[in-house]
Design goal:
The structure is a single chain. The chain has 14 helices and 14 strands. It is α+β, with helices and mostly antiparallel strands and 504 residues long. It folds into two domains: 167 residues, Aminopeptidase; 235 residues, Aminopeptidase (3-Layer(aba) Sandwich), CATH 3.40.630.170. Strands 1, 2, 3, 4, 5, 6, 7, 8, 9, 10, 11, 12, 13 and 14 form a 14-stranded mixed beta sheet that branches. A hairpin with a 5-residue loop joins strand 10 and strand 11. The protein is globular and about 60 Å long. The protein starts with 5 loop residues before the first helix and ends with a helix. The structure holds coenzyme A (COA).
Length: 504
Amino acid sequence: MDHGGGPKKSQKKQRKQDQWRGERPRDIFEKVWSARDSFGERTRRLPLTAFARPLPQLDSLPESKQQEIQRALHLFSFGQTMPRTLQQAARRAYEFWHTQPVPKLGETAMGRGQITAGEASAREEPYSLPRGFSWDTLELSRPSVMQELRTLLNENYTEDDDNTVAPDLSVDYLQWVLQPPNWLAQWHCGVRVESNKKLVGFIAAVPADVHVYDTVKRMAQIKFLCVHKKLRLKRMTPVLIRELARRVRRQGVGQAAYTASVVLPTPLSSCRLHHRPLNLRKLLEVQYPGIRGDMPPQRALKFYRLPENTKTAGLRPMTKDHIERVRRLLQANLSKFHLKAGWSREEVAHWLLPREDVIDTYVVEADDGALTGVVSFYGISSKVLNHRLHGSVRAAHLFYATSAAGGDLVQLAEDALVLLKSKGFDIVIAADVMDNNRFLEQLKFSFSGKWLHYYLYNWRCPTLISEPVTLGLILKFKKDSRTILSRACNTWLNIKIQLTILST
Ligand SMILES: CC(C)(COP(=O)(O)OP(=O)(O)OC[C@H]1O[C@@H](n2cnc3c(N)ncnc32)[C@H](O)[C@@H]1OP(=O)(O)O)[C@@H](O)C(=O)NCCC(=O)NCCS
């Protein structure tokens, strides 16, 4: 039966399909969406989240299926990813970052100091969000709110979208990272969907006294920038960053320190993340990202075998009694680095005193009470997706490994591996920072393929071109890196990154 208009409609549909046939998905999405995105900034490319419109039925699929489709679309969206090298970065417009007080890529820093005097102009009212979204200062002391944050991060705070593992951050871990001494609730900044109150975006900062060359500045250390997967590439990130910067400035703090695996304007330094299997068989079975079975299994097991017991005399868990001595040892040993966080007694206690399944610290204590070494690591679990036997993988991140002059740092680090294995960790992750290069190779760490870049917001200073010296939460860079080669540092960094990309 002809309802009139029916054939016309299907002809129209057919024409549209013909028009799109043969085009890459990216082109289709670009046609579907206008050049102005929902967060009010001009974007050059919009497609990734845009598939929600051509495929409205996507929402009705289970989350895992949606993620699979998203990944497939990622593969087709050529050129969408953030730059991983300075060469790639040189081709990006950085429409947001070029409006921010950060050094431009390729610029040679002349002098040191803040880039803009922003505190005075920090506006009172929050930045506007698109209709349907609202800001929320997360009250993390409320278990239900903490749980919401945990869900957001565990489902979305990941780069390795390859369906093997997903982060499984615990409440205790989040409290440790987000509530150090002097933390401020207003720096825990969330975005919710107004209709159902779902948390879909988050950015946080914690206060820290950061030493940059000869200056000590109270800064905001940025944590957990995260946008829900369904809202990616919609320019929510610039709004989150602007709002957090406003809140930070309202407290009279004008600078921030942060790390990212992507290249933004402009890295102060960069390091490579290394990993060292403890339970190789399991890592291979779950196809842990970056772990390859290059060696015959028996040889590999022998290669990574560790002693049964630790060897360093006087190695024991850190207690409250050690706080002041640990502080002094770190202060003395880190004085050679150009970028570092200065810790008070309270901060040493917070960041280093052992907390079950969060942070573990061991000290080397001589009979006379002198401390000659400290080693600490924090644990992060991941859920294993799609494996019958293994439900989770536990990764230990080396936080600090330092020993006084004459101390055996290699032995101390090996002992740390022995302890970590006995505690059931499957892998150890360490950056080539501080004095870690003294033991990484010897203890069979290998480059994981991942880089970490270090940034300062609203602070100009010469780039640190020797090895950066930090483990995730704290920043320390070698003093001898202040060098007349600063003009050449971008080239150097570029080469370093390029070589790595080639070798992975
Ligand atoms: C990082 C993340 C928030 C970016 O979101 P997105 O939807 O891809 O990006 P948006 O469209 O919202 O914003 C794009 C802008 O954010 C910037 N940006 C992207 N990743 C960034 C990062 N890690 N840090 C700071 N800025 C970043 C981009 O450079 C771009 O600005 P530009 O125009 O100046 O180049 C998102 O991918 C995410 O949640 N990833 C998982 C968690 C994660 O990796 N967090 C970062 C830890 S450092």
